[in-house]
Amino acid sequence: MNPFQSLSATAVPLRMENVDTDQIIPAKYLTAVTKEGMGKGLFSWIRYNPDGTPKADFVTNMLEYQGAEILIAGRNFGSGSSREHAVWALTDFGFRCVISPGFADIFYNNSLKNGLLPVTLPEEVVNMLWDLVEEDPETTIVVDLQSQTVTLSDGQQHSFAIDPFRKICLLEGLDDLGYIGSKEAAIAAYEAVAPYERAL
Asked: Which residues, at least 6 apart from 57, have a Cβ–Cβ distance to it below 8 Å?
């Protein structure tokens, strides 16, 4: 996966709470075995009209939010089933970060393992970000993983927490297996001397 270090991007304001994984990516798309093209099904239950045309009034379809890489969502985002496809749909669509007052645990961990940064901020801050982005869709938000901060153009800054191990993996663009592989030389060096140390 691609490393995540610092992201400076515009955002989509999704004023919805309790968005579950079936709403993020409906079950009919789960037959796919690759991530490619999964973004077409993102929020399809509300993003498209019955005839398959995009709904003009849904935020991801609005011209002013095209190209945004940050999604600002409501509480309990990603609840429901454990389907990893929900994260694949978000990343394939172009999102690299989701900001919310709270995430479902499994979705949160799936995000970290697939290069999507979930940022938990207080509800009042998320409400402020919604208002700000709706008033000016060109608002740029800077999400810096190294410093664990979200910074606005006026200098306002908010901190977020993240597991240290997951932070390292995201910064280096490694999944669990990739992290173990990156330590191959150290493991080999240890194994080379370990038998002698155990014999002492």
From this structure: none
CA separation, residue 18 to residues 39, 60, 80, 107, 180 (Å) = 20, 18, 9, 12, 35
Task: Please tell me whether the overall predicted TM-score, pTM, comes out greater than 0.85 for this model.
Answer: yes
CB 54 within 8 A of CB 119: no
For CA atoms 47, 133, 94, 157, the dihedral sign is negative
- Structural domain contains residue 199: no
The string of pLDDT tens digits covering residues 67-122 is 999 999 999 999 998 889 999 999 999 999 999 999 999 999 999 999 999 999 99
The alpha carbons of the chain give a radius of gyration, in whole angstroms, of 19
Q: Please, which pLDDT band fits residue 194 given cuts at 50, 70 and 90?
A: low
Question: Both tokens of residue 22?
Answer: 């079936």
Ramachandran sector of residue 77 (left: φ over 0; alpha: ψ -120 to 50; beta: rest): beta
> Domain span at residue 40?
6-175
Domains of the chain: total: 1
